[in-house]
Amino acid sequence: MQGSSGKNRKMNSFRSRIRRVSETLGRQGIQASVLVSFTVVAVLVVLLLSLVLYNRFTQRTRVLMTESTQQLMSQTEANLEDYLTSMRRVSDAMYYDVIKDKDLARDNLDSEMFLLYEANKDNLVSFALFKRDGSLVSAAPISAMKARTDVREQQWFSLAMEKPENLHFSTPHVQDIFDASTFRYYWVISLSRIVELTDRGVPMRGVLLVDMNYSTIEQMMERVNSSNSYQYFYLCDSDGELIYHPRQMRISVGNYKENNLQVCDYEDGVHEEKFNGERRLVIVNTISYTGWKLVCVIPMNGFQLGNVSTRIFTLMVILATILALLVVNRVVTRLITSPILQLNRSIQNMEGGRVDPDSVYIGGPAEIEHLGKSLQGSFKQVNKLMDDVLREQDERRRSELDALQSQINPHFLYNTLDSIVWMIEGEKNADAVFMVTQLASLFRISLSRGRTVISIKDELVHARNYMNIQKVRYKDAFEVYWDIEDQVLENCTVKLVLQPILENALYYGIDAMGDEGEITVRGEKNGDDIYLSVTDNGLGMPKETVDQLLVDEERVHKHGSGVGLINVHKRIQLRFGTEYGLLIKSEPDEGTTVTIHIPAVPYNEENRRFLERGKWNGEVRR
């Protein structure tokens, strides 16, 4: 009874309020009453219809987004499967075309393996074939394993031996079992399998390793992740170990968690889950051959992102008159402040790190656009200056390191000491004493107490010592003529610039001339410049070869110390500027002349220390 009376009181209160509103509207006239009545009814109808349509729209949007994501996942899955299939075909080609039916005792696999590697090197890092005991049979492109490396302890090797009937794909790792001369190791995904080998007619088992370039899979995943901001894709193996995740670094340091260990148990399809207090949709697809799982995670609030404009439109229809000024004000404010905010965000992104100047926002009103272009130009100039400084420092470091390494040539030292031993055994003591004296003087100037700038006089003494030793070794098979003006001797030069040129003249110029070889060293001062030249009457070079000598840094030196002319050229330019360096003239069968062009800087302690610290600025200190 008390509950019934309470409901009656609430109903009566509601009726009394309606009656008071009706009386108030009635006093305002029929026009106001009809206007308010129709407005209220219209608002209620619009609200009801908007709510129904919005719910339908939300559901439909979720279905479309899910279908769109599944299509994107199917395409990505197809791309990954195509790539893994191609790698499997490469593995099959290596096994059936190169390894199978070959006898390791008489057949060499290196050339065929290298050819197959060259044909697929865009997606591969290396091939390797191992015996059951872990010994290397053949590999490409690097065929030398690190010392004390036992591949039987590697997971890919043990998996292949445990399950010989399957192909095995590893998780990403750094492959460092090979002794790479560049000391550069790559992130790879290893494909391993058991293969049948034959050694002296005896069949045995081995393991074929194909190291796929992880960056290929990484790029595929980065492309699909860049297509949407409200969802992300990751890749894990059948045990839940992550192969790729857009937040891999944060996961590794513990700043982010992923439900990958549970997702690996999900069947293919769409699943809803709650992880770390967040409701989200998880779509799982399994990659053939590998058991890997491609996973897409869509937070439930991500489905609302596409409905913001619809909700704003609904509110604007209901409150059009009331919010007209607010909407106009919002639009105008956004037009004015949005370009400034975007420009400010792009500049904030540059704080504490270097970014691409093209990321600076350019747009909005003319004044903001002009400011963005000005800032972009300034950052480009700053980046250019930074690049120049870093490049110069890097080149200086590499050049000085190369110069230091070239001071003592083990091959040259070995041959010289061998000649001295031969002279002592032949009781040519005077010649042996001469060789030892010249070698000691050569090393004294090479070391120069760690200095990189010495006098031309000392550089010439070093060059004479070198040529005296070489003349003894070559049994005076060539002649050296020295034509040096006295006024060039007491000037500065970079250490070890003549010896590499003389070395090249010997090995590449007159080595094939028999007893008719001649080398002429000249030195002269012309105005404020000094020219030191080395001329040989050797075979010479065509113009195409000459044009590459001072630009091709990858040129392989077959003889000598390995210090190429480009090294000498760059060391001179680092100290004296780009207007100085080497000049090369050569004609086939006409010999070669290499000229060193440097400024005339008097050799004294002040000038030497200045050049040791940095580049010459044209100022001469007498």
Please provide a written account of the structure:
It is a single chain. Strands 1, 2, 3, 4, 5 and 6 form a six-stranded antiparallel sheet that branches. A five-stranded antiparallel sheet has the order 8-7-11-10-9, with helices on one face. A five-stranded mixed sheet has the order 13-15-16-18-17, covered by helices on one side. Among the domains are: about 85-215, PAS domain (Beta-Lactamase); about 320-395, no CATH class; about 415-615, Histidine kinase-like ATPase, C-terminal domain (Heat Shock Protein 90, 2-Layer Sandwich), CATH 3.30.565.10. It is an alpha+beta fold and about 625 residues long. Helix 2 runs antiparallel to helix 3 (about 110-120), helix 8 runs antiparallel to helix 9 (about 320-350) and helix 12 runs antiparallel to helix 13 (about 455-475). Mean pLDDT is about 75; it is low at about 25-35 and about 560-565. It is flat and about 135 Å long. The chain has 17 helices and 18 strands.
List keywords for this structure.
single chain; 622 residues; alpha+beta; Heat Shock Protein 90; six-stranded antiparallel sheet; five-stranded antiparallel sheet; 18 strands; flat
